[in-house]
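Human: Can I borrow your eye for a moment on a structure tokenisation matter? Separate attempts, laid side by side, tell us more than any discussion would. Could you pick a protein and write out its sequence and tokenised fold? No explanation is needed for now; the record alone will do.

Assistant:
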Amino acid sequence: MSTYKGIRGLKVRDYTTNPDNPIEGQLWYNTTDKVAKYQVPNIFSSWASSANLNTGRKRLCGAGVTTAALAIGGEAPPGNVGNTESFNGSTWTELNDLNTVRKAHNGGGTSTSAIIAGGNDPGGDVAVAEEWNGSSWTEVNDLSTARRELGGAATNAEAALVFGGQAAPGSISATNESWNGSSWTEVNDLNTARQQMAVSGGTETSTLCAGGIVPPSSRQSKNESWNGTSWTEEGDLNQARYRFGGSGSSNTAFLVFAGDAPPGSATNNTEEWNGSAWTEVANLSGPQSANAGAGNSSTSALSFGGDSPITRTDEWAANMAQGAWTSAPSGNTARVRLAGFGTSTAALSFGGRTTPPATIRNETELFNGSSWTEQNNLNTARMDLAGGGITTSGICTGGYTTSVQDIVELWNGSSWSETTDMNQAKSGASTVGADNEAILVFGGHLGPPGNTANTESWNGSAWTEVNDLNTARFLASGSGINTAALNSGGDGSPDYLSVTESWNGTSWTEVNDLNTGRNAMAKNGAGTYTDTLVFGGLEPAYSAKTEKWNGTIWFEQSDLSNSRQALAGAGASSTAALASFGDAPGQSADAELWSGSSNTTKTIDTD
């Protein structure tokens, strides 16, 4: 007989209270509550904004996975298009067009081996099928029945299934055809004839037909499962819909999202299928319909395009570690519009402003992970300043006194000393660096002339102007070091930017936007240019939002406990950060600590 010790190598210990830091898999007995307990990690799933299509369109179809996908055909003013675009996980690239421009077609496969069939071209519904070999489309044998708004699934260009659709005006089809690489063969029909089902997902031997519509207006929640031979009715969708995207590896793991739902409007609803039931999960950021999907599982998917038409792309990721903010000791002097740098257990915060009366500050405080200690003051009091480095070697740049400043001070672990001024006076810039001898300062506000895109590099003795940001802004968040940095959000045009740019040591490149545009976040985000956290700000309301950058896209995380803007931030990665001071609203000395993971204690009733 198996025992807990035999499986885990541990005995079940007794505790009067729960242990402070139980290890993974540990089971204990709480003698006060008289129950056995254990912990499980908290996880979450989310959609995040990704790179836009080059050509906005609706009624298109997709193929591939989240890091290697295709967007194929569709409808864009003034009519149908044959555009094919490839997604590499970060950008869309235009490739060779379809031979027959069309919309409302379907198919599937990979980014290097795919097939699409059917649809509607300017002359009407078509039976035309085309194969993709990674670089171009080739016409192959036609479907037996011309139709549009059909469902589809494929492993690659040599193995596919298409089903349902509209075969003629007013004629809804249940026809199901299988492709073997050379010809189409009719196989067992759907149980319910319909059109405009989920677009993409599964394989030719294992897929779902979910939702759809039976004209004139009967939206469907029906769900059928294909096992390679026949269709079987399964559990219905929670929300009836048509014209929506899908992603899945088989008939036991599927995701559907967006679509037209009763009473006739687009939805952002997302549902996950586990082989026996649908569960509503995190929604898309906004309603969509006539979109397409890609992805080979219910845990990793893309949604792109849709009605208007739009260029928007969203990426789904499931079962990510759920982080959390917890209260930390407060600082000594409540203030706003200050700067900070360091890590979550060794951070420096300095400068800023207090009211009333309006007073610009020079105080410096050190956080050691458990308390704040006052340090030697800045030589020049200022607000809207910026800083970078670590608590033994840092820098303070620019800011505002009665005008914008070019003043620079170096921190050596115990005191500040003035050094060479920047080339350009500015306030509200972003500053990053590993220490006070390798620093990058970018963006900022020049006063009456407005915002700047200026970027300057510091080598320990002199400032050098380097390539500008693409978007001028101030009050943005910066992360990283002088050769690899990230700049996100800020105040520009519009006031609440979502724009993110990446620095490679030579130039800035626009990458995927924040999910929520805002300014006055912690000017020092927590982390590197491939793994960082931004938090707080104005959007224009006070924000508690936290977003994590994984090197490609931003994912929303757990909110700060208190909404705040004009705060200080510190942290070496997205798994450990410090948010402190700021306007919450009203000047605050409060601090919060971020952990990139969290747990929930579960109970086993032993009675």
About this structure: The CA atoms of residues 268 and 287 lie 4 Å apart. The mean pLDDT is 94. The chain is about 0% helix and 45% strand.
